[in-house]
UniProtKB/TrEMBL annotation:
Annotated PANTHER family: ACYL-COA SYNTHETASE, ACYL-COA SYNTHETASE FAMILY MEMBER 3
GO molecular function, one term: ligase activity
Lineage: Bacteria, Bacillati, Actinomycetota, Actinomycetes, Kitasatosporales
Protein family per UniProt: Belongs to the ATP-dependent AMP-binding enzyme family.
Species annotation: Streptomyces lannensis
Pfam family, one: AMP-binding
Transmembrane segments annotated in the record for this chain: none
Residue span, AMP-binding enzyme C-terminal domain: 392-465
Region Disordered: start-end pairs: 1-22
Record protein name field: Long-chain fatty acid--CoA ligase
InterPro entries the record matches: AMP-bd_C, AMP-bd_C_sf, AMP-binding_CS, AMP-dep_synth/lig_dom, ANL_N_sf
Domain AMP-dependent synthetase/ligase: 16-348
Amino acid sequence: MSHLSDLSGQLRHQGDSGRTAVRCGDESVSYRELDAHADAWAAWLRERTRPGDRVATLCRSSIEQIALLYGCARAGRVLMPLSYRLRPPELAALVADATPALLLHDAGHGDLAADTLRRCAHRPVLSPLVQPRGAAEGSGDVDPEGTVLLIHTSGSSGRPRGVPLSHRMCVATGEALDGVAALGPDDVVVQLLPQHHTGGWTVLPLLALARGATLIVEPEFDADRALHRLADATVTMAVPTMYRMMADSASFGTADLSSLRLAVCGGAALPGQLARIWWERGVPLCQGYGLTEAGPNVLCVPPGSVEASAGWTGVPYQGVEVALAGVAAGPGTGELLVRGPAVFGGYWGGPPHHGWLHTGDLAERDERGWYRIVGRLDDGYVSGGENVTAAEVERVLCTHPAVVDATVVGIPDKRWGEVGVAFVVARSTVDEEGLRAWCRERLAGFKVPARVSVVESLPSTGLGKVRRDVLREMAREAR
């Protein structure tokens, strides 16, 4: 297991190898080529930027962006990948917040980048993301505490905030993850998450390159193509929405999944029904939990315990400490607190953070010491003086045979203070009052939603996290 303290050194350690480092579409690059490519980017950046400058990107996942990250690591710059799914006003707000020196774009996002900058008072230099030409140079001294990635949170309940990730954080989260993944040169890792998300880097990809494995990167998610890629894979990671889309594909039943020894699910809760679909195909699909502010890896299902994991996110990774606010020991429910070497030091432009990270997630711990996330602190509401946890009502709705997915939000009510409104996605025609009756048979009256709305889909972020803020506004407008 490598103990090199910076990303630059980890790649350099593999740099003499002619083995394939990354494949993306029809392109591939060896470790030797990637190492040299990173040096070229470092030299290019030193000519155009200053230490600590942010280098923003608007592009699909690519080998080029991976080389750029390592170039930033060697030059003491900060890669700031932006989501191309955002609209220009949203992107302009992120540019104004972090004031990057450069904005690099791929061939498909030049117009989006230009439109974004027209809305910005701060104007970074605009340039295509293409392999730099000219003499390469090696890396100098790298500060392990220096920021190497600036990832913006998904903004599922408010304005996105920048989370600086240091070399030390990235290495620490990789070391923790390797206690479960145990990656080596013979592994093939398929990465399905976009590179503007923390999971597109620190959940498997950077660890794979530190261990000499082959990394397969998808430019953009497509269920059928992803299933084809998994025929070569030993390890993969995706969010529930992606696993659901692959399971719904006509080619799922015949896809070759025999080489997969580990499939991690994160980003949102993994429904037990979906997990079992993959288990029946012989794939050890298991839930993990994390957040960008913690690097992101926090909880995982222990190896060999997958079939006992439905609905649970397991135990802390090695080196990660967790606690429940207000719960001393044993079973209980409370806000999940996290601390450890991969926890951030504060939001970009905000005050420093020390000690326990308050996640805002409400978690339950059982007698085994296993955890599961049961909701957000701000997802709950108080109806008639009684506390209601949205996740509990959602679980009951999802037991209805016609319900595919459900989200419950609380809105103000003159009589009860707050009431719940449920938004349900159904696989067949369903009676909304019948769903309320279903809840009444299984829940106390104050927990039964005041209204149920059947919708075609739930509004979500690019990674499938439900936009509860949008649903609350919809519920208020419906009144």
